[in-house]
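In the previous chapter we treated chains in isolation. Here, by contrast, the input contains two separate entities that must be folded as one system, with a combined length of 252 residues.
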Amino acid sequence: MENQPNLEELKPKIKLGMKFWLEFENKSILGSGWAKLLKNIEKNKEGSLSHAAKECNYSYKYAWNILKRIEKRTGKAIVITGKGGRGGGGWVKLTDWGLYLLEIYQKYLNEITKIEKKLGETMKIS
Amino acid sequence: MENQPNLEELKPKIKLGMKFWLEFENKSILGSGWAKLLKNIEKNKEGSLSHAAKECNYSYKYAWNILKRIEKRTGKAIVITGKGGRGGGGWVKLTDWGLYLLEIYQKYLNEITKIEKKLGETMKIS
């Protein structure tokens, strides 16, 4: 009675959906957007938060609030700031704690990316 | 100025959070609850939907609606039903399409479980 499914036709319509993040004491502290901001801060040689924020399409203020929110939730500084620097007007740099969180997130992301390859399915990370 | 984070103390407070599901044509069709229902149907030798639903703490009707929703979203039957059987009153069984979806989900879950082991972090799947 049952028709055999035409898997060749159906398979491309199936996707693996996923959302992932880091938690600290059960509070969400780092999802894909916030991790991208930290990564942009890390790679920005001038320590410009404006530039790092811009790459995420965030305003300076929005980015700053994200940093403060992560710090509040973990109870520890994730950035240090200072005056002056090449661009003038101040610089920002990840602390060891900020780097540590980013590192865990990146390892996590790496492992997740491997699943897509291994299972041969399209993954949609949101 | 910056205090070194005491990672031994902080690390146990960090968890990997995750939510994952299957999509068909961009519609969610199988998350952890619905997949558990399909699994319970598959392993129930008598084909009792009541029993399978009960193991998920779902009512018969709630479970039935889930099955119909997946069928509507994929355009294909995921169960076949019949009258009689050991328990009387009818049986339910996964179609090849239902089994196929469950299999993809299980493989996906397996790979995700490996991440927890590999990274040595606690994972919280919701």
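The longest strand of chain B covers residues 14-24. The interface with chain A takes residues 1-5, 7, 10, 13-26, 28, 74, 76-77, 80, 95-97, 100-101, 104, 107-108, 111-112, 114-115, 118-119, 121, 124 of chain B (CB under 8 Å). Compare these points with the single-chain example from earlier in the chapter.
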